[in-house]
Amino acid sequence: ELTNGEAAFAPSLWLDIVFVVDVSKTMDGGRLEKASAMIEGIAYSLTVGKDAPIAAKQNGRFSRVGIIAAADKPEMVAPLKPLNLSLTTADQADLGSAIHSAIRMISSAPARSARQLIYIIAASDSSETGRYANQCEKRHDATCDVEKFKRNGGIIAVMEASSSLNVVGWFPELASPGYYDTSFADNINYYLKMLCFANCFCPRGLIPFSRPDALNRNAPDDGCFFSQSPAPYSTAKKVCRASGARLATIHNLYKQFFLMQASGGKPFWIGGVLNGEQVEAIDDTTSPYTNWAAGQPDASRGRCAFSRQSGEYTSEWFSEDCFVAKKYMCELLPCSVDNYCN
Q1: Within 10 Å of residue 19's Cβ, how many Cβ atoms?
Q2: What is the pTM of this model?
Q3: What does the alpha-carbon distance between residue 144 and residue 147 come to, in Å, rounded to a whole number?
Q4: Is there a contact between 246 and 240 (Cβ–Cβ < 8 Å)?
Q5: For residue 216, what pLDDT band results from cuts at 50, 70 and 90?
Q6: Which domains does the chain have, with CATH numbers?
Q7: pLDDT tens-digit profile of 284-294?
Q8: What is the DSSP letter of 6?
Q9: What is the DSSP string of 125-191?
């Protein structure tokens, strides 16, 4: 959120961003100048790699930013600050080639755990229909790199800068869910908030607990999870803690259903011990939510609790001896502006 109207979080963003900017004649009428001002404003707000203080470089809290100018062929642009983009004589931009170059730019950089994002600002596209159809049976996906980029956790944001009301055919499909925009806003904080949202993600291999926001964007606000083989309750707690996580707790029906699916329908420990009919959660959260089966809890069975699937979409809680081995889920905070993941 903004602090006194300012994006105070911006210097702490840690993203790998490549801007792909249409520099064809369709970006005339001040649109290219507006795009340049937007990118430059974002760059000045971030802590960018080569300009980052030593402490930021050591703890990874900096962003790497690149720019590709898209006309009839892509060209890498430098320097970033100040940014000088000029219109070309090209009638339209070949975004397919530019996106391919952007992905190559990101993949050729030294690997790190940061979220990767390609931000396209364009009013046209001349990509050849079916250029790569023999390889991926997709029309515009630059040798399928776009879909692979998304599957690997990358985000593609598209700012439609056309002067007309006609959407460039594949732009909505090209963008990741919730990252297609036509507003072309002047408020730099608008874009920084979007980047902050993109900076919330789970490390690769973990299962995100996400619910779409009003724009249909997904971020794992409710945590990142990984499952483990059966073990007694105390062992489960220790293993999760050793990984910087905690044994998963349940405080609402949404998380109950999510964990049932994430566990593959297998019984799993709930993070907490019985106190009457309540489970005292290990995260110290107080919640009235319970999901006991009929006749439960039964303290004579034990002070620990596990969840077991009882129907196609339902599950229930049962008391159990803490020394019995059960599958369990560990819960981690997502990577974010406030939580750097190395």
Answers
A1: 27
A2: 0.87
A3: 6
A4: yes
A5: confident
A6: 10-199 (3.40.50.410), 224-332 (3.10.100.10)
A7: 787 889 999 99
A8: B
A9: --PPTTTTHHHHS-SSSTTTHHHHHHHTT-EEEEEE--SSSPPPTTHHHHSPTT-EE----S-HHHH
